[in-house]
Design brief:
This protein is α/β, with parallel strands linked by helices. It folds into three domains: 128 residues, Alpha-Beta Horseshoe (Leucine-rich repeat, LRR (right-handed beta-alpha superhelix)), CATH 3.80.10.10; 129 residues, Ribonuclease Inhibitor (Leucine-rich repeat, LRR (right-handed beta-alpha superhelix)), CATH 3.80.10.10; 162 residues, Leucine-rich repeat, LRR (right-handed beta-alpha superhelix) (Alpha-Beta Horseshoe). The chain is built from seven helices and 35 strands. The strands form seven sheets. Strands 1, 2, 3, 5, 6, 8 and 10 form a seven-stranded mixed sheet that branches. The protein has a seven-stranded mixed sheet with strand order 13-15-17-19-21-22-23, with no helix packed on it. The protein has a six-stranded parallel sheet with strand order 24-26-28-30-34-35. The N terminus is likely disordered.
Length: 441
């Protein structure tokens, strides 16, 4: 019997209630784990993935340091799932010592109305693992030393605005980003539905994916002259935009919009301004070699475009949707015109090309079909070509789709059905044809 009793002891021990804590210590109602360095701590949950996590907690004031067993630790992070499911939490203060907030740290904190911080520059530098790492995703209102921030001016000490930094902060109305900042992270301002204007300084080189996605009240954005990349969906849902202001036209032509229509705010704004003067007659600067894809997408405020001899490539959908455009001049160095470059430029009535060998140009296709001028009325739009090139254009797609090709100082492709030789086929031509038929009968 004795031997049998001893064998059951380990089994009985396994059946005892598990009482080990999920944290190293607790001070003033907040649980902490000591980090690997032994000198700093992370705020953690009291119960993992449980509705009892911080049960009854309504206000959390996280200190920058905490003392336990006569040792003082710096509070540098908020751990994964730390406040997960704390539906009763209404306000939280996060100190400047915090540099990392783990995944889903505030997931389900639907009662939050206030996030208070003590240092704005430090807040911009926090690494948020995901959107639910940021309590603003639920609180929507950010306070600096208990005063709400509505007109946000990023401090000059900030070099990067980290991803998700102000995501969901609908209390913001304006944002000014100084020349010290070089990078705006992914989703940095997404969901800031109260935001009406944004000014981006001249040192920013990269605007991340979804950076301003869902800023539905945004009406005006100024983009500095150093931006070279705007990520996918950066301005998706910014349906209130009416003005895009830039400070350097050549720099704008060089931005990589990652072939995404929602990367370019012009998709909603339709009007481009240079130093606050609207561009209608666009003359591409001589310093430009390539007009990047989607550069002027949906810019219906344009009425004419002149592309100089310096340009060799016109990118995909570069002028797509420019419905107000009536005339285009294309310089003689262009050797590549990408898919949809002038797609749906429905108002085009005149194209002057100085390309001498159109048959040697590379043309973009969609589903195997050259669609550069799809949506352009080739019946009404006149095509003006250099002297001695009429035949080349007549036998080269997509130029041969134009009914009226005019050679400089030379011949003209006969416009079938143009009875009065005015360059278009309209009701007058139809009536003239009817009269001829009636006379023949």
């Amino acid at each position: 019997m004795k031997k049998f009793y001893l064998t059951l002891l380990p089994i009985a021990a396994l059946m005892l209630p598990f009482t080990a804590t999920a944290y190293d210590f607790m001070v003033d109602g907040l649980a902490y784990n000591v980090n690997d360095d032994g000198n700093s701590v992370s705020v953690t949950y009291t119960e993992y993935y449980s509705s009892s996590n911080y049960s009854g907690l309504t206000v959390a004031n996280i200190p920058d340091t905490v003392t336990y067993n006569e040792k003082t630790y710096s509070v540098t992070s908020i751990g994964i799932y730390a406040f997960d499911g704390c539906t009763g939490l209404t306000s939280i203060t996060i100190p400047s010592s915090v540099t990392l907030i783990g995944g889903s740290a505030f997931d389900g904190c639907t009662g939050l109305t206030k996030v208070n911080i003590t240092d704005l520059a430090a807040w911009c530098n926090i690494d948020f693992v995901d959107c639910n790492s940021n309590p603003l995703n639920f609180a929507h209102h950010l306070f600096l030393n208990n005063s709400e921030i509505t007109n946000l001016v990023i401090p000059n000490s900030v070099g990067e605005i980290k991803s998700y930094a102000f995501r969901g902060c609908s209390g913001l109305t304006t944002v000014t980003i100084p020349n010290s900042v070089t990078t705006i992270g992914n989703s940095a301002f997404s969901g800031c539905s109260g935001l009406t204007s944004v000014t981006i300084g001249n040192s920013v080189t990269s605007i991340g994916s979804e950076a301003f996605s869902g800023c539905s009240s945004l009406t005006s954005v100024t983009i500095g002259n150093s931006v070279t990349s705007i990520g996918e969906w950066a301005f998706r849902g910014c349906s209130g935009l009416t003005k895009v202001n830039i400070t350097d036209l050549a720099a704008w032509c060089n931005i990589d919009f990652h072939k995404d229509v929602y990367s370019n705010p012009l998709i909603f704004a339709h009007h481009l301004f240079l130093n606050n003067s609207e561009i209608t007659n666009l003359v591409i600067p001589d310093s430009v070699r390539e007009i990047k894809s989607y550069a002027f997408y949906n810019c219906s405020g344009l009425t004419s475009v002149t592309i100089p001899n310096s340009v060799t490539k016109i990118g995909q959908s570069a002028f797509s949707g420019c419905s107000g455009l009536t005339s285009v001049t294309i310089g003689n160095s262009v050797n590549s015109i990408s898919s949809g470059a002038f797609f749906n430029c429905t108002g085009l009535r005149s194209i002057k090309t100085e390309i001498l060998e159109p048959q040697n140009v590379t043309y973009g296709t969609y589903n195997g079909v050259i669609n550069i001028f799809s949506g352009v009325s080739t019946n009404y739009c006149k095509l003006f070509v250099p002297k001695g090139t009429l035949e080349s254009y007549q036998f080269t797609a997509p130029w041969n789709s134009f009914l009226n090709i005019v050679e400089d100082g030379g011949g003209t492709t006969p416009l079938k059905g143009d009875m009065n030789d005015d360059g278009i086929i309209d009701v007058e031509d139809v009536n003239a044809l009817i009269n001829i038929i009636l006379k023949l009968n």
